[in-house]
TrEMBL record:
Region (Disordered): 246-300, 501-608, 754-780, 865-921, 968-1010, 1153-1198
The protein, known as: WAC domain-containing protein
Biased composition (Low complexity): 759-780, 982-1008
Keyword Membrane: no
Record field: compositional bias (Basic and acidic residues): 531-553, 564-584, 1163-1173
Organism the protein comes from: Candida albicans (strain WO-1) (Yeast)
Lineage of source species: Eukaryota, Fungi, Dikarya, Ascomycota, Saccharomycotina
Sequence ranges of Basic residues compositional bias: 1187-1198
Compositional bias ranges of the Acidic residues kind: 510-530, 585-596, 876-886, 909-921
Pfam families found in the cross-reference section: DDT, WAC_Acf1_DNA_bd, WHIM1, WSD
Length: 1272
């Protein structure tokens, strides 16, 4: 961009084209300006040739326009040639709205930030990589490693802030891959310099002339690299003065002569109409504020009924969606005129008029449905109580460590699933990558229940196959099943490595260096430089000592292999001591020798047998894993071995130590069976999820997963090509079908008219001849394919069949249409299958549906990556170009959807009941994976930026709420919305009592009802915590500030401006009494009606909620079908037929016993009264009739009562009572065994198909090693 006096050069706008296109014009190619007169052309050229122009990039001045433009083009070519393309987007995102005014400081900042940061696609130099793709940090060992080799970065991964960034690079000479860090790669010095950065900034950025203006990316580059261009709120003042880099035209100056007179006259006529506006606005506001009407009618009896008639209608006081203030003012102005030209319903939200969600008003009448909390499964809850009781007994015996026991008791007494994030992550990973893990898919309900499998269930029902297969599948992905040769085994043992390890482990040295750097952040830079020099001087000594220690360890390992079982603990203890000595040597090089001796004497004492258990009977855990020996507690021992690989990681250390002490305590024998028993006895469900999550974190970065993702991407690209080919073929076939159908309809119309003319009288023929010019228009309207072409109709009608017998050409067109319709249906089915496969192959990351106004995140985990069991009605079965078939297809879709819904509910709507009779459809209706819509709290950035609070404070509040709910036995807290009363002041529209999942009907039902707020039932602790955390005072009939100002009244309406309420307070009020404060807070919806209520609650005028509403509406039908399948499979809304039969038998027996069909409670009370009366009246004299009955019964033989039918026919009261108790016990057992039977029915069908046995039985085990020996 050439500058003239530090401003962009403006271009003369082109004139209108002359009528004669052969007119000669004068053209300037550099500016693309043309002139009709030569004088104008000369003036412009004289201006452009003056030496007053400046090159923006180089800063050279005293140039002509053409010289400055040439200089800029040369610099642009230089930047495009040398500057890395992969860096441009990231640097622009970093510079967007940057407030550093000085350019040199900005260049230095960019250079320091991106100096050691590399991105995929960059061409870099590689160092320290040998021919076997092994990375060696010591380049002095081999000269070949020090040579630079060119390569490209393919992927970039960073597992944490403390972890170093790792890059997957590919060498250009042989296309070999390697994982390296920033120490092994570097850029070309000529491609990343401060001069190039400065040139790039001048080329792509611009800045306003005002003080404090930020740097802004030019429009051309913002569109190219998708850089957001919306200004922050505090920088919007610079938007108008910041150059965008686009062409700026010279605007003609406005004439100032007669304009002031014109501006003075228009204000006079609007003044008279403003006067009648004021009383109308004042009257409307007075009607809203003052309930008493104007005393126009002096009728005394109507006076008491007047106040409710003036009250604001319900829809106006509590609208379903609040509209932005600007649009509301515009509507009120039109309404105040008396004759509004449009209604409020005609306003539609667009990208231009939607606003920030928190700028819109709210009330508590139309609140969103309350999500549920995932509670612990019954088996885990019961077993946690058993562990707590055991801990109480241990507390009596041991006096110390009371604090730890109390913490453990609080953790185990939690009513909800504490490790919900780990559970969801584990379930998603196992189901998304189930193909490479050789495991079949399973539901989240079965997964949680299986993870809570306890010792009682293990002793009664045996092992849980789902639980064993999950652990065995994940463990099998860590070490391959390939068996090493003797030479390979020796080599790996000497190097202290594991053969076949498929995961990358974090190194101890890197973690120690990170921790040391974190502890030394507060020191001066000079001291850090001196320490680094000392470490570099003593590095060779450290390497020699470490090599000596490793040699000693290898020798001790060889000796330990010949020792018996009892010596395993000593060997592992020596290994751990040697590791500690290595760490001591690393950290104490600058200390004295006395400190070295003291540090060696302070050694931690191992208080568990985990190291002995993982190498039980002299065989290492990795050898067992390689041989797939999982039975009889072996996979639990393997689990200990895998956890020992990452026990030095700080984020895993505490969890792994707990697992060590739970699975292998010191007082238990170091055997596999004891570890298995401890797994079911002592390990609770939270630790199980955390241990599984650690394994999954290791497997996620393995080549097994990366290769699967690459293959999915390749398959998805081929499927997209097939989809395009499918669309092209669909359009071609559709055109042929349309032509044939048009010919058929026109032929039928003409033949019908001819037959009518033959049968009519001469007078009618004359009338028809007069109407003949109108017939072609009618036939064209009839032949519209939108109305005529039916893709589900293959058979000919009677008229078509009769005409086809007479006309061969007509018959041929009918056959063409029939074949085309069959082909179209096949293409639609193929497209549907392609769409389902694409959603399954999209397994890189789970897609977020969106955020609501309070920054809560919504997840539907069946949206991508998982098998698409329930594809909703939003599938693109019809092409967007098929405008002519939309109506018929929509009708067909609506009929199919109604049939599916009625099949799920068990209702017969149509006469075609074939689908209900098939077993496959019934199984599909009960098949699901998740069946829940999950709601997650705001992220850490949202908490800090938008709610302006600390993460610790938010976590403390959620912990307090958990304690309050725990004291209330895990019950849901009252939200205060009770006492629904009819609002007689509003106009009743349509009282629909049907409980359908329709937002329109639900909103119409609530039009004439007002929910009164009453917080009297809330616990006092909750009120105090809300007062302390959010400065809100919750009273019985409203919410107030601490100063006494009312925020929410009894009806739930907001009483003060939004500016007086903080975002955090609003979140507490809208989500009261259970606000989602952190990202670890999870809730879910599992009812279809809640989804429709949620969509209707989302405000389309908000930025976030409009997007979320759109995404939810797209997947609404799929979510509802999945929820209905889950509720049907788990018998949530219904009872199984077996239990129904038992309950019916109980009712029949109770009616016979008590002689009536009363309630169960009344029957039980009646039974107690009879038994009490019988016990009290033992000494009462019997009557003669009773004596005869006693004698008669004593003389007969008593028949045995075996079945319910026997009890109903000839059972005595005692027999009936006994039968009732047995049936009630059986009913309780069946209800308790629902989930157990469902989990036990699960079978790993994928492993059975591949290996003919499960993974637990060693299905993935390598069969033989003969082929490997033959190759040698």
């Amino acid at each position: 961009m050439v500058l003239y006096k530090r401003k962009q050069v403006k271009i003369i706008p082109p004139d209108d084209l002359p009528e004669d296109l052969t007119t000669q014009v004068w053209f300037i190619p550099e500016t693309k300006e043309w002139f009709l007169s030569y004088s104008d052309y000369i003036k412009r050229m004289d201006y452009l040739k003056t030496r007053n122009f400046v090159c923006e990039i180089t800063g050279n001045s005293c140039l002509t326009y053409f010289e400055a433009l040439k200089s800029e083009e040369q610099e642009i070519r230089e930047v495009e040639k040398n500057f890395p393309e992969a860096l441009k987007e990231h640097i622009l995102r970093f510079l967007q709205f940057n407030r550093i005014s000085r350019l040199d400081m900005l260049v230095d900042n960019v250079y320091q930030v991106f100096k050691n940061d590399y991105f995929p696609g960059e061409t870099v130099f590689l160092r320290g990589i040998d021919n076997n793709n092994n990375v060696s940090n010591n380049s002095t060992n081999n000269k070949e490693h020090s040579t630079k080799q060119r390569g490209t970065i393919r992927e970039k991964v960073q597992y944490g802030q403390d972890q170093p960034t790792k890059y997957l690079v590919v060498r250009l000479n042989d296309n070999h891959q390697a994982i390296v860090t920033e120490q092994n790669i570097s850029r070309d010095r000529n491609h990343f310099t401060k001069w190039l950065i400065k040139t790039f900034i001048k080329l792509t950025m611009s800045r306003s002339y005002k003080v404090g203006a930020p740097w802004v990316v030019k429009t051309k580059y913002a569109k190219k690299y998708s850089i957001p261009t919306t200004y922050p709120d505090d920088l919007k003042q610079f938007a108008d003065t910041t150059p965008t880099g686009d062409i700026v035209f010279i605007q003609p100056k406005k004439k100032r002569g007669p304009q002031p007179k014109i501006t003075e006259t228009p204000p006079k006529p609007p003044k008279p109409p403003k006067e009648p506006k004021k009383p109308k606005k004042i009257a409307i506001k007075a009607e809203r504020k003052q309930p008493t009407p104007a005393p126009t009618k002096p009728i005394v009896p109507i006076a008491p009924a007047a106040p409710p008639a003036v009250v604001v209608p319900f829809k106006k006081k509590f609208p379903t969606h609040y509209i932005p203030d600007a649009i509301m003012k515009e509507y009120e102005e039109e309404e105040a005129k008396g004759t509004p030209s449009f209604g409020l319903s005609q306003f539609q939200p667009t990208k231009k008029n939607i606003v920030e969600d928190l700028e819109l008003k709210f009330d508590l009448q139309n609140s969103k449905p309350l999500p549920k909390i995932l509670s612990l499964p019954e088996n885990a809850k019961y077993w946690n109580q058993q562990i707590i009781e055991e801990e109480k007994e241990k507390e009596k015996e041991t006096e110390g460590e009371i604090d730890e026991i109390e913490r453990e008791r609080e953790r185990l007494s939690c009513y909800r699933l504490p490790s919900i994030s780990e559970a969801l992550q584990s379930w998603i990973f196992l189901n998304v990558y189930h193909n490479i893990l050789n495991i079949d898919t399973f539901t989240f309900d079965d997964f949680v229940f299986a993870m809570g499998w306890n010792a009682d269930q293990f002793s009664e029902d045996g092992r849980c196959e789902l639980l064993d297969e999950i652990w065995c599948a994940v463990l099998s992905a860590i070490v391959s099943n390939e068996l090493p040769t003797n030479k390979e085994a020796k080599d790996y043992k000497e190097r202290d490595e594991i053969y076949g390890l498929t995961i990358t482990l974090p190194e101890k040295d890197e973690i120690n260096e990170d921790s040391e750097n974190d502890s030394e952040e507060d020191e001066d830079e000079d001291e850090k430089e001196e320490d680094e020099k000392i470490k570099q001087e003593k590095q060779p000594q450290q390497d020699e000592k470490q090599n000596n220690i490793k040699d000693n360890e290898s020798n001790s390992d060889q000796v330990s292999s010949s020792k018996p079982k009892g010596d395993d603990s000593e060997d592992h203890g020596s290994e751990s001591e040697s590791e500690e000595k290595q760490l001591d040597i690393d950290t104490e090089q600058s200390d004295s020798e006395e400190n070295d001796k003291e540090s060696n004497t302070d050694k931690p004492v191992v208080t568990h047998n985990a190291y002995e258990c993982m190498n039980h009977r002299g065989t290492s855990w990795d050898e067992r894993l390689r041989k797939r020996n999982f039975k009889d507690g072996n996979w639990q021992c393997i689990l200990l071995g895998v956890l020992s690989l990452v026990e030095h990681v700080p984020q895993y250390e505490t969890t792994i130590n707990k697992i060590y002490h739970k699975l292998a305590p010191k007082d238990k024998p170091a055997t596999a069976l004891s570890v298995r028993n401890q797994f079911y006895d002592e390990l609770d469900i939270e630790l199980k999820f955390k241990a599984l999550n650690i394994l999954i974190d290791l497997v996620i970065s393995s080549p097994l997963v990366r290769n699967h993702i690459d293959s999915c991407l390749e398959n998805s690209t081929s499927l997209r090509r097939n989809r395009l080919d499918n669309l092209k073929e669909y359009k071609i076939v559709l055109e042929s079908a349309q032509k044939a159908h048009q010919y058929i309809t026109t032929k039928l119309a003409t033949t019908k008219n001819v037959s009518q003319l033959d049968q009519s009288s001469p007078e009618q023929q004359q009338q028809s001849q007069q109407q003949q010019p109108q017939q072609p228009q009618q036939t064209e309207q009839i032949s519209e394919i939108k109305k005529g072409l039916d893709l589900n109709k293959l058979e000919l009608s009677e008229s078509e069949r009769l005409l086809a017998e007479q006309d061969n050409e007509f018959k041929e067109q009918c056959n063409i249409r029939k074949d085309a319709i069959i082909k179209l249906n096949q293409l639609k089915e193929a497209k549907r299958e392609i769409e389902q496969k694409l959603t399954e192959l999209d397994c890189q990351r789970m897609k977020l549906l969106g955020k609501d106004r309070l920054y809560n995140r919504y997840w539907w985990f069946e949206n991508n990556g998982l098998p698409n069991l329930h594809s909703g009605g939003n599938n693109n079965d019809e092409d967007d170009d098929d405008d002519e078939n939309n109506d018929n297809n929509k009708k067909d879709e609506g009929e199919n959807e109604n049939e599916n819904e009625n099949e799920d509910k068990g209702e017969n709507v149509d006469s075609d009941n074939e689908n209900e009779e098939e077993v496959d459809d019934d199984v599909h209706d009960e098949t699901y994976l998740m069946g829940r819509l999950w709601v997650q709290g705001p992220s850490n950035n949202d908490i800090a930026i938008h709610f302006k609070t600390d993460l610790k404070d938010a976590q403390e509040f959620s912990n307090k709420i958990d304690k309050i709910r725990l004291e209330n036995n895990g019950q849901e807290l009252d939200n205060g919305k009770v006492n629904e009363e009819n609002n007689n002041n509003t106009t009743t529209t349509n009282s629909n009592t049907n409980n359908n999942s329709n937002s329109n009907s639900s909103s119409s039902n609530n039009n004439n009802k007002v929910k009164k707020l009453n917080f009297s039932k809330l616990p006092s602790q909750l009120i105090t915590t809300v007062r302390d955390s959010f400065a809100l005072d919750i009273k019985e009939k409203g919410i107030f500030t601490q100063s006494g100002e009312k925020l929410i009244d009894e009806e739930g309406s907001f009483m003060v401006p939004l500016a007086k309420l903080s975002n955090l307070q609003r979140k507490c009020i809208e989500e009261f009494p259970d606000p989602l404060m952190t990202g670890s807070d999870w809730r879910y919806y599992d009812k279809p009606e809640d989804i429709t209520k949620l969509i209707s609650w989302l405000n389309p005028w908000g930025k976030r909620e409009s997007l979320l509403r759109k995404e939810l509406s797209l997947v609404k039908e799929a979510i509802i079908s999945s929820m209905e399948a889950r509720r049907k499979a788990l018998w949530i809304d219904q009872t199984p037929p077996e239990e129904l039969e038992i309950s019916d038998n109980i009712k029949k027996l109770k009616t016979k016993l008590f002689g009536g069909s009363g309630d169960d409670n009344e029957n039980e009370n009646h039974l107690k009264d009879k038994t009490d009366a019988a016990e009290e009246d033992d000494d009462v004299i019997l009557t003669s009739s009773a004596k005869r009955a006693r004698r008669s019964t004593g003389s007969r033989k008593r028949q045995k009562v075996v079945t319910v039918q026997d009890a109903l026919e000839f059972g005595e009261p005692e027999d009936v009572n006994k039968m009732i108790k047995e049936l009630e016990k059986e009913l309780i057992e069946k209800k308790d065994n629902r989930e157990i039977n469902r989990v036990l029915e699960w079978v790993n069908s994928r492993a059975l198909d591949l290996f003919e046995k499960s993974l637990y039985e060693g299905g993935d085990k390598q069969k033989s090693n003969k082929s490997k020996q033959k190759k040698k």
